[in-house]
Amino acid sequence: MLSLQPPPDAAPVLVLAIGNPSRGDDALGPLAAQRLTELDLPGVEVLTDFQLQVEHALDLLGRRLVVFVDAAASGSGPFELRPLEPRADVRHTSHSLSPAAVLDAYLRLTGTAPPSSRLLAIRGYGFELGAPLTAAASANLQGALASLTPYLRGALPPIERQSLPA
Amino acid sequence: MGFALETAADTASLRRVAIDPLSRVEGHGKVTLLLDENDRVAQVRLHIVEFRGFEKFIQGRPYWEVPVMVQRLCGICPVSHHLAAAKAMDMIVGARLTPTAEKVRRLMHYGQILQSHALHFFHLASPDLLFGFDSEVARRNVVALAAEHPDLAKKGVLLRKYGQEVIRVTAGKRVHGTGAIPGGVNKALTAAERDTLREDSYRVIAWAREAVELARRLHESNRALYDSFGAFRSSMLSIVAPDGSLDLYDGSLRARDADGAILVDRGDCNRYWELIFEEVKPWSYMKFPFLRSLGPAEGWYKVGPLARVQNCDRIDTPLADAARRDFLDFGGGAPVHAPLAYHWTRMIEMLFAAELIKDLLHDDDLLGTDLVNQGEHAERGVGIIEAPRGTLIHHYRVDENDQITRANLIVSTTHNNQAMNEAIRQVARTYLDGRKLTEALLNHIEVAIRAFDPCLSCATHALGQMPLAVELVDAAGVTVDRLVKGGEAARC
């Protein structure tokens, strides 16, 4: 456990979904994780957490592709899948890292480049504690998963930077 | 499996649809410095928006859902909320925990303490302490730490990973665990789980000892700065075990005054409101608790590692107790009030947690099958626990239909509210030069805030980049300067 060696049974693809299930559309990440888990895609491991921390860099060990899934607070499109590169964060609390900073932590901790990584950002609209998922966010989630799932299966053309009509 | 982006000739030229992901930092920090007629800092107001809507969120739910639901309040210490709520529900169901249930919960709690303290010290505080408060912002982060101190960063992340594995095997899941239930737990450990954790526990203790030494060395190497930076005197509050030893899971309330004399001892957690009053101030959503016996002007206090390590009479694990005695010797018989000493005491607690985890992993009760019991039900339940940042109080009422009718939470950041304001005030008085805010001042205010690491995730949800804003207001009430930092510094 106390090592930076990749686990021998690491699935080649990791989906790391972020969000709080009880904060309205912040649940987009956990809901995406739940539905992808139910699909039981071969070679794909699905993890979810409230927020990213430095130790999530260890979850990237031994992966070929990592897809971070997160709710988006702004933007026009219903969702977007974009590439990620390592980049440091500067924060004044211990409370979270960005996906790019997790990749950077991986780079610094292991001395090797992180696996190829994407961020699937799904547009959300309301984030109050106890609020349900909005209908618009639900539709965005459906569209995002409809595109992400075949992408993860490797069966259809990629959806990089495609955006469904609002 | 093919991924077209890897094969795209020029990824930079692809059309970009701008959707910014949410910041997971739920809240923001704002500091207002109020000047007097002589342009001295008269008052500081640290604005942290306390979580609201919790009562509405929880009201009407059956009590047995609460230990799981409250984890949704905080992404940083969900286990602390989980356990505090479970302890309150133990009262509701009239339970006395079985040995297995209590030890599994304690293991879970100390796993949380270990991983939280490791994160704070290695990845939040260390860049400040190792690179200096005035070092460039880009260096003061975990990535820079990993670049210049790779072994330290590696141990920090692996200690955190170990603590999370303790949580996973006790709570059932890595996040959103369900391990603690009203009256007990829903699972014990398997022998394989225990053995795996036990194997690594000795290395965890060794690394925790190194961390204590590092924190001590840093403090001692620049004592003039560490002892004075943001320093203020106050009372201290925590729970302690019935015999006065350090206990972060259960006990009674104890408060000491700024000179170390005991003000309150064996305070009944179930009647905490007889000891503590929460004052409301018009400029802040967050309340200001104080000890009733001293009143609002004198009765405010600090909580967390610095209070706990000095509030207890001893620590029941040998290495951590030796470290505690070293710390007390350093203070020369008087309480240490320096905010930067939080880091040293935080590491003493991390060592305590590591030793306790090892001891628990040698206790066969962890593998027991007697997990839950119940007694006579009650309408009210209080659960108090020492969370990583300080005392956490959960208080609930249920009706005859077993539904929650009222809830009150006092989190550690609320307890430390006045203390944080005082620390920032001292820092501002020292480093504010004239009527102009500087990057250096902001950096130093951040260092003071980081010592307490206020639980912003319990605060309301803020979207986008999280800023720290400092405002300077003169004696006439006019804002004379404002500086905002959120990733990149900007004056506005």
Topology at a glance:
The complex is a heterodimer of chains A (166) and B (492).
Chain A: E1 13-18, H1 28-39, E2 44-49, H2 56-59, E3 65-72, E4 79-83, H3 99-110, E5 116-123, H4 135-153
Parallel strand pairs in A: 1-2, 1-3, 3-5
Antiparallel strand pairs in A: 4-5
Helix pairs in contact in A: 1-4
Chain B: H1 4-7, E1 29-35, E2 41-47, H2 54-58, H3 66-69, H4 78-92, H5 99-131, H6 142-148, H7 150-171, E3 180-181, E4 184-185, H8 191-221, H9 223-228, E5 235-240, E6 252-256, E7 262-267, E8 276-279, E9 288-291, H10 295-298, E10 301-302, H11 305-311, H12 318-331, H13 341-360, E11 380-387, E12 390-398, E13 404-410, H14 412-415, H15 417-431, H16 439-452, E14 468-473, E15 479-486, E16 488-491
Parallel strand pairs in B: 1-14, 5-10
Antiparallel strand pairs in B: 1-2, 3-4, 5-6, 6-7, 8-9, 11-12, 12-13, 14-15, 15-16
Helix pairs in contact in B: 5-7, 5-13, 6-7, 7-8, 8-13, 12-13, 15-16
Describe what this molecule looks like in 3D.
Chain A is of the alpha/beta class and 166 residues long. Chain A has helices spanning 28-39, 56-59, 99-110, 135-153; strands spanning 13-18, 44-49, 65-72, 79-83, 116-123. A five-stranded mixed sheet of chain A has the order 2-1-3-5-4, covered by helices on one side. The N and C termini of chain A lie far apart (45 Å). Chain B is an alpha+beta fold. Chain B has helices at 4-7, 54-58, 66-69, 78-92, 99-131, 142-148, 150-171, 191-221, 223-228, 295-298, 305-311, 318-331, 341-360, 412-415, 417-431, 439-452, and strands spanning 29-35, 41-47, 180-181, 184-185, 235-240, 252-256, 262-267, 276-279, 288-291, 301-302, 380-387, 390-398, 404-410, 468-473, 479-486, 488-491. Chain B has a five-stranded mixed sheet, with helices on one face. Chain B has a four-stranded mixed sheet with strand order 7-6-5-10. In chain B, strands 11-12-13 form a three-stranded antiparallel sheet. Mean pLDDT of chain B is 86; it is low at 1-27, 457-466 and 487-492. The chains are: A alpha/beta (166), B alpha+beta (492). Chains A and B meet through strand 2, strand 3, strand 4, helix 3 and strand 5 of A and helix 1, helix 2, helix 5, helix 6 and helix 7 of B.
